[in-house]
Design goal:
single chain, alpha/beta, PHB_depo_C, PHB_depoly_PhaZ
Length: 422
């Protein structure tokens, strides 16, 4: 009950701020204030609009918003999102391009489960669609999953990835972004030993904490300072009465959002101050850069407590992946068993979440792979977001990843549609 009260208190605070923003917007927008041309009313209305929108976004799952893409035939083809597998804690979805022949490149994009929805990779998906068939792991919000569905920890997550890879077949090319990189590496090793014919063709790991000790960041420092008991006491709560998952132990998305913002408080404070001033001057718009970014950034989801705690304990503190000691259902997963899956790592030189050195450690663990099957790339000047969704991704990293996929394609699929600029 204590955890539920804390969870509902956070939701009450969020809801109250949304209401206050709506009230300020409505109050300051009355036409009568036009008789008193004081800038206070415009600022109040602008503050209300920005505040209402910001707090409302926190409990809304964003839409993918990818309607169509141009194809090689010069036509725009509509996009249909189809669900191939729907499991309690996540789904495998396919961005089906209507009227387009199957592509030689098939990509499974493994989205992070770290507080944001899979739609955080919207621009990544959009940039890959003209040149590949794209599949994405769409993780569900833990607050909406009944307690009767059971637990979900990093071993369950790994087995979900194994099932998705097995379903998509051995010609799939897997790209894991950030948090899932170590577990995707483990899932590939699991298949290499249990079902070699189901292994993916290539594996690209982008900015993931394969070895968190390789380079310190604020994230890894926090993991070392706090004990598991302290962490469980401070951040784990029970879903409140408002949602289907009432009573489930979770790491709330709102708490994760607070930690995200605190890491760059000055930057976010300035962004919102500038947005309020722009709105008060009548210079704001519905789809400006601020709204596009924060509509996604502020939309957060809860993680199951067991997933969050096992990630911290086993990946960051225990270094089970980094030391090749990870187990699934009591059986060790040996990363050295990967012998034919080409592996590439991508890092950003300015990444303050997964610093350079953490992700490239995967290549050291792949002792069964020849050097010809290994590749790495360090993007100069790129931060964490930029290596999978920013200009660094679009202009530099994306072409390199597609070239890597093509270089390791089967002979029958070696000739593919040339990469188009995005």
């Amino acid at each position: 009950m204590k955890g539920m009260m804390s969870y509902d208190l956070m939701e009450t605070i969020r809801n109250t701020n949304e209401w206050m923003g709506a009230s300020a917007r409505a109050m300051a927008s009355y036409p009568v204030w036009g008789l008193t041309p004081h800038p206070m009313f415009k600022l109040m209305s602008a503050w209300g609009r920005v505040t209402e929108r910001s707090f409302a976004r926190m409990v809304i799952k964003p839409d993918w918003g990818i309607r169509s893409i141009p194809a090689a035939d010069g036509k725009d083809h509509l996009i249909e999102i189809e669900t191939l597998v729907d499991k309690p804690f996540g789904a495998l979805i396919h961005f089906k391009v209507q009227g387009r022949a199957p592509m030689a490149r098939r990509i499974l994009l493994v989205a992070p489960m770290s507080g944001h929805y899979a739609t955080l990779l919207r621009s990544t998906v959009a940039s890959l669609l003209p040149d590949a068939d794209v599949y994405v792991t769409d993780w569900h919000n833990a607050r909406d999953i009944p307690v009767s569905a059971g637990k979900f920890d990093i071993e369950d997550y790994t087995l979900y990835l194994v099932e998705f890879m097995r379903l998509l077949g051995p010609d799939i090319n897997v790209i894991a972004v950030c948090q899932p990189a170590p577990l995707t590496l483990a899932a590939t090793a699991y298949l290499a030993e249990e079902e070699p014919e189901a292994q993916p063709r290539t594996l690209t790991l982008i900015g993931g904490p394969i070895d968190p000790d390789a380079a310190a960041t604020e994230v890894t420092d926090f993991g070392r300072r706090v004990t598991m008991g302290q962490l469980e006491h401070m951040v784990i709560q029970r879903v409140g009465f408002k949602y289907k998952g009432a009573g489930r132990l979770v790491y709330p998305g709102l708490m994760q959002l607070a930690s995200f913002i605190s890491m760059n408080m000055d930057k976010h404070t300035k962004a919102f101050s500038d947005k309020i001033l722009m709105e008060s001057k009548g210079e704001g718009s519905e789809h400006d850069h601020h709204n596009i970014f924060y509509d996604e950034y502020l939309a957060v989801m809860d993680m199951t407590a067991e997933f969050y705690l096992s990630t911290v304990e086993r990946i960051f503190k225990g270094l089970e992946i980094a030391q090749n000691r990870f187990e699934v259902e009591g059986k060790r997963v040996d990363i050295g068993k990967i012998t034919r899956v080409a592996v590439k790592t991508v890092e950003g030189s300015n990444d303050d979440i997964s610093a350079p050195g953490q992700c490239v450690a995967a290549l050291r663990l792949c002792t069964g792979l020849p050097d010809s099957k290994k590749a790495q790339h360090l993007e100069p000047g790129a931060g964490h977001y930029g290596i999978f969704a920013g200009s660094s991704w679009r202009n530099n990293i994306r072409p390199l990843v597609l070239d890597f996929i093509d270089a390791n394609a089967a002979p029958a699929m070696a000739k593919v549609t040339p990469i188009r600029a995005v």
